Amino acid sequence: MERIPILKMGDFLLVTIQVDLYDQLAENLESDLINAIKKNNSKGVLIDISAVSIIDSFMGRILGNIAVMSKIMDAQTVVVGMQPAVAITLVELGLSLNGVISALNVEKGMDLLRSKMYNGDKEEQAYDDSSR
Amino acid sequence: MTTAADKEELFIAKEQDVVPLRNLVKEYGVKIGMGILNQTKLITATSELVRNLLKYGGGGRVIIESVTNGRDFGVRVVFIDKGPGIKDINLAMQDGYSTGKSLGLGLPGTKRLVNEFDIQTELGNGTTVTIIKWKNG
Questions:
Q1: In A8, A124, B50, B101, which residue has its Cα 20 to 30 A from B39's Cα atom?
Q2: Domain locations in chain B?
Q3: Residues of B with CB under 8 A from a CB of A
C-alpha cells in the first residue's frame, strides 16, 4: 500500500506531501502520524503541502483532524506552504480549516513550532514561580 | 449555445482512479489557457463529485470535454452513475447536509467553485451531474 513518509527530526515529525492525495492515502497518513507521535514522543508535527495542487473537503478535514488529534496527544501541528490557489479554493468550498496553524514555509513553520515549545516551557516556569 | 470540441471518457471504479481523472481535467484546462486559480477550482470540484460518484453511485463514467459558447472557452465535466439517485435534491444542495459522515460541503461547495452546475437524478436510476468552468469565469 502507498504511504507518505514521516521523518523524525529531534522532537518534531516532518511530513512532506509530494504526491497527489486521494482519500485512502490521506487516511493512512492520519493514523500513521498519530502513531508516530506516540512512538517518538514528538512535541510537534510539520506538514509541508507546497507540492499539493488541490485539497478538497475530505483532505481538508483530514488536515483538521490531524491538528486536533495531535493536540490531544500534546503535540502541535503546523501546516506550511499552502499554494494561494488552494487557499482561495478551500475557503470558497466552505472549509475554513479552523484550528489548523499555518506558516508560509518550512523555515517559518519550524520557528513557530520551536517558539510554541519554548513558550510552553516558560508558561510552566511562570506557574511554578507563582506557586512558590 | 455551447458547442463541444475534444472529448474523453473515463471509467471510475476505485479511489485511485481519481488521480488520472484530475490530471486529465487539468490537461484540458491547460489546453485552453485556463489560469491556475480556475484550474484549481475545477479540479477540486471534480474531486468532490467523483467522491460522490464512488460513495453513493458505486462508480460510473466521467466525460471531459472542451467547450465554447462563442465568447469564451471552457471545460465541461459530466459525472454519470447508475446508483440509487438522490431522494431530496433541495436538501442535498444545502450546506452542511449529508447522509454520510462527511461535512456536507460536496454539492453546494462544488456549485460555488464552477460557473455552471446541473444535476439530474431519478430514484433507482442514478444521478448525472454536469459542471462547466469557463476560462475567464
A1: B101
A2: 3-134
A3: 15-16, 18-19, 22-23, 26, 36-37, 39-41, 43-44, 47-48, 51, 95, 102-103, 105-106, 108-110, 112-113
